[in-house]
Amino acid sequence: MSGEGRDPQAIRKLAPGKLVIASHNEGKVREIRALLAPYGIEPVSAASLGLPEPDETGTTFVANAELKAMQAADLSGLPALADDSGLCVDALGGEPGIFSARWAGPSKDFGLAMELVEKNIADTAVDGAPAPSRDAHFVCALALAWPDGHVEWFEGRVDGILVWPPRGKNGFGYDPMFLPDGHIETFGEMDADAKHAISHRADAFRQLVAAVF
């Protein structure tokens, strides 16, 4: 949802060459590398450059993606792409949302995070009322920043329901408990190509590609 409402002529184009992926999450880096592969971009991870992880002090996915991209571009002197994404659960008022990684704790234990989501959904149940909604969606905000401070951003989304117990060992994060609408496999069961075709990250990337390449 970035370029919508903006003058396409005003969006800065990205030239082939090095691009910093401003993430220390290897799962995200791996997916972003695959999505960038056809476009003449040479991705380098923030971790490989020794760049620090900034505090994510934004109150939205877009704000957090922007601050990560801007710091990486400023410190590296290269264009930088950052992703901020998370799981939003209807029954939990949109949580964990921008705090999705924090629910996994310092050890990034997403098995624990998924258990916490499931427990919190169960805790919303009221005797005699219908079972709590299991509707959820993933959001991905991508921010592309240049060293001079210019930023473009793009936001994607995929809707689905949560299953329990989790299914599959592919993907990362909350993928094994997320069943996208219209599919019979969770993100944790899908192979990478199938997930890349429909994911929130792929949705945001389609917008980015259309705008900056």
What does this structure look like?
The protein is α/β, with parallel strands linked by helices and 213 residues long. It has a single domain, classed as Alpha-Beta Complex (Maf protein). Helices cover 29% and strands 22% of the residues. The chain is built from five helices and six strands. A six-stranded mixed β-sheet has the order 2-1-3-4-5-6. A hairpin with a 5-residue loop joins β4 and β5. α4 packs across α5. The longest helix is centred in the N-terminal third of the chain and has 16 residues. The N terminus is likely disordered.
Q: How large is the count of helical segments?
A: 5
Strand content: 15-25%
Structural class: alpha/beta
Helix content: 25-40%
The assigned CATH architecture is Alpha-Beta Complex
Mean pLDDT across residues: 92
Distance between the termini: 17 Å
Question: What is the topology?
Answer:
Elements: E1 17-21, H1 26-36, E2 41-45, H2 61-76, E3 80-89, H3 110-123, E4 135-145, E5 151-162, E6 178-180, H4 192-198, H5 200-212
Parallel strand pairs: 1-2, 1-3
Antiparallel strand pairs: 3-4, 4-5, 5-6
Helix pairs in contact: 4-5
Summarize the structure.
The protein contains five helices and six strands. The chain has 213 residues and is α/β, with parallel strands linked by helices.
